[in-house]
Design a protein that fits this description.
It is a single chain. The protein contains seven helices and 14 strands. With 300 residues, the protein is α+β, with helices and mostly antiparallel strands. It has one domain. Strand 1 and strand 2 form a beta hairpin. The longest helix has 20 residues. It starts with a helix and ends with a strand.
Amino acid sequence: MNQATTFRLHAAALLTGFALLLTGCFMSPGKFTSQLQLTGPDSFSFTYDGEIFFLGLSKLAQMGAGAEESFTAECQDDDTFEARDCTPAEEAEQRAAWEAGAAERAAERKKEAEQMAAVMGGIDPSDPEAAKELVRLLERQRGWERVVHKGDGLFDVTYTVTGTLSHDFLFPTIEGFPATNPFVQIILRDGGQVRINAPGFAAQSGDNPMMGGMGGMGSLAGLAAMGASGDSADSGAEVAQLPGLPVMEGTFIVRLAPGMRILANNTDEGPSVNAGSKVLTWAISPRTAQAPTALVVAGG
């Protein structure tokens, strides 16, 4: 792989990651365990223990935002389309065009900074204290029992909540953040049915609305999966070197109270039974192609 190709792969991954941030796909699980327990027809408990990656606080987003800051002339052979050294005249022409667009790029960077702050609940990701501010924001919300910044946008958290199923539920829900990036959803239906979806626990899921516009990389986990899954050996090797991008790996468990019935699920092994409770288990990895989902109902 030549240097020009390597540069283009890096740039494409950086810009994809930054676009995901600005369109709402700005969080991803790292290593985790999570359990949803339906303790009765109208009650539940939910836990998430492990890593959450915030793209806006990572070097990846900073590199993506500043990707055009340095000028590099690029030329290719007209016949072979292979990269070649530019002539002095070609480099001068490209540099003049780049300098002419300086004001436009500055305005775009300002707009992007405002967009980044908007999806981060007003937190300025370029602020050196941004990670500490996010820790304080989460710690004051009910359920976030532990929040530790491990560096480069990666947080180690423990989240626990119990409640009644009187309305739909999303995790994570963060004050001031748009609710566009759920890991787990509980959706109530008529007739006592409960739909459980975990779109954030799939690297390549078609259930993720970002899939179509990102050419198959519908999440941050999908970006990481290019390197981990082996689907593209050359490009994957480059993406895997991007700083701060965690590999998603964990377990999601749904445990049902006795008497609850499973209408549908997409586990590999189907339900097991433990102490009279039906249990659904998904092993999550960068190769997880479908978001965990189940449809259950109270009563036998």
